Amino acid sequence: MKYSSRDKNKYQKEACYDNFVCKSCGSLIVPNGAGSDHRNHCPNCLSSVHVDNLPGDRAANCSGIMEAIGVWVRKNGEWAIIHRCNRCGHLSSNRIAADDNPVKLMSIALQPLARPPFPLNEIGGAIGEL
């Protein structure tokens, strides 16, 4: 979706109550249930679309699908999703929404444990050598 110059920066100050269809899974997304006035990703697959350079500015011309690749915990204990654009590689962080799929969130959070960057059978030898 392209935004007019009138729409640019609109969502930095105003709530967004627009429905949209997820470009990744095809679900109809409504703002109700997000627990926020700024729905910015699909609660089912956690994907988003690269429309912002800065939150709410609608200045990005990419429109690539932002895949949820990780989660992290902010200083205040709130969880956030790390998104990476599959077109240009842009990274962003978005707070989770109240109605986000908890199984999908946990599967993303557990990926580093399920696929560690080293062979698990080497752990025993390395610990014994310490």
UniProtKB/TrEMBL annotation:
Top-level taxon: Bacteria
Ranges for domain RNHCP: 18-106
Protein name per UniProt: RNHCP domain-containing protein
Listed Pfam families: RNHCP (PF12647)
